[in-house]
Design a protein that fits this description.
This protein is 45% helix and 23% strand. The chain is built from 3 helices and 4 strands; from the N terminus they run βαβαββα.
Length: 84
């Protein structure tokens, strides 16, 4: 599973990374790859207009806010379920 945090490296982007890391640990996902994406052309390629944003396996699942750890966990769980 590839999780990308899109943003400029601002405080909210760092918070989203921390919340995402905590959610991955809590869920016990060993094969998660967390990646920071700070390159604006790459961010724009996803069609994201406000950061921070969370991308799971190439799909933007959240943008423009810092969710709770529980919210991120739910998004990850949903993404895992949709993989089959």
């Amino acid at each position: 599973m590839r999780l990308e945090i899109l943003g400029s490296g601002c405080a909210n982007c760092k918070k989203l990374m921390a919340v995402t890391e905590a959610a991955v640990r809590e869920l016990g996902i060993d094969d998660a790859e967390l990646v920071k994406v700070e390159d604006f052309p790459k961010i724009m390629a996803y069609g994201v207009m406000s950061t921070p944003a969370l991308v799971i396996d190439g799909k933007v699942v959240l943008s423009g806010k810092v969710p709770s750890q529980a919210e991120v966990g739910s998004l990850i769980t949903t993404a895992l379920a949709s993989k089959g």
